[in-house]
Each structure stands twice: as structure tokens, then as C-alpha cells.
Amino acid sequence: MNKEKYKQAIKDFRLMDDTFMSAAFDGNIEGTQLVLNIILNRSDMVVTEVVAQREYKNLIDRSIRLDIYAKDSSGKEYDIEVQRAKDGSECRRARYHSSMMDTKMLKKKQKFSEIKDSYVIFITETDALGMGLPIYHIERTVLEMQTLFGDGSHIIYVNGSYEDGKSPLGKLIHDFKCKEPGEMNYSVLAEKVDFLKNDERGNDAVCEIMDKLNKEATEEAIYERNREVALKLLEIGKLSYEEIAQSSDLSVEEVKALAEGKTA
User: Fold this and answer.
1) Residue 191 to residue 175: CA distance in whole angstroms
2) Angstrom distance (rounded) from CA 203 to CA 20
3) pLDDT tens digits, 165-201
4) Are 153 and 147 in contact (CB under 8 A)?
């Protein structure tokens, strides 16, 4: 780990940067609880689990990595994403994240009625939907009746360009864009940011996450290349799954899953 390489980046990081957010919120029950209570306009939420960079793997199609995964005391699940680039908050990405969360929520033989509510929350640096609002709530509706469908799927966009120093949401957005912990509104966030930026142990934690994400990005690129090789060999159709696995550095199970996806 090259700490010198990362020092300047750590100084310039804000919570609006996904790497720094991962370090700040991983396992941070109190901070995540604060963020969700403000965004959902609540004061009674009890968060029971928080994990940064949770990966949902899909052998056939595209896998995803959630910036922050959280669960509350009622079993509802949350995906909190920070996006500085506009294309990273595209509406169909929110839809895909929501669908991937749903696929992991039910175990075999569970009833569909047992599926819990899910929330995909994008905190964006700019006004991603361009309507000038501080926050947007997206729900499925019955158009003919203008009533909520009520399937428990919720998508929320928080406008990171919104400025209001008085409202809880405005203060939270300020804190997400703030580099200096001393200028932040919420002490539970400021203390964590101060630790990560100004404590040797905090620096190490951020560096470890940066190293891990860089390594995983390389591994993902290699996996995608191997996957493309396997797909081309499957199209040719002359090799067994075992032979394709050897040629592509995938497992036989992964090759079978790709084959089944092609013929489904």
C-alpha cells in the first residue's frame, strides 16, 4: 500500500466521493441512521446493519456493487449511492439496482408477500432529474387512478446542488460536499471525517479501501475479458463446457450459466 500516493487524495476527499463514503459509512450504524432519517423525513429509524461495497454477483448478466447497503429493524433494505457523474445516476441504473436487490431478498419457498420494502437512494452532485427540487421520490403508480401501486419498491434522488443552510436536508447536502470536518453541521459525520483525514489509523483505512477497489477493478476487467472469450467459444459451438472453461479461465459452472443465459 503506497500511502504517499493517496495522501493528497485523502485531503481532497468529500463524502460525495464514493471511495471516501465507503470508508466513512462501512459499519457506521449511527451515521447511516442519521442520513436515512433525514432523507426519509423520519426520526425513528433503527438501522441494524451497514456494509460498504456489497457486491451482488450475476453469472450471466451484469453484477453490481452497492456503495452502501443498509438494513433497518423492520427488515427493509437500502442502497445508498453517491454519483458525481450524471451518467452514473441514469434512471435505468436505479431500476437495475432495485431489481438486483429484490432477487437477493427472498429465499426458496418464501412467499412473494414476504418480500420487504427496498430503497435505492442516489445522492448526486448535480440535479440529475433537472426539475429544481431538493429531493425526488419515484414510486410505481396506477396511472388511471393516480394511486400508488404499493409494491414496496422506492427510488429516491437527492439533489446535491441544492443549497439551504436551514433545513436538515440542506445541512446534510452541505456536509456531503464539505472537505473540512470543522465546517460540517452534523457531529456524527464530522467526527468520522476528521478521523479518516487526520488520524493515522483513519488514513490507513481509506488507503486499504482504495487499494481493494483498484485491485477489484482490475479483476473485474479480466473477468469481463474472460467472459467475452467464453461467449465467443459458445457461439462457435464445437467445444465442451470443460474445454471452454480451460480456454477462458472461468469455472465450468460459470460457462454453463452463460450457455443457459444464451438459450433462455
Assistant:
1) 12
2) 10
3) 899 999 999 999 999 999 999 999 999 999 999 998 8
4) no
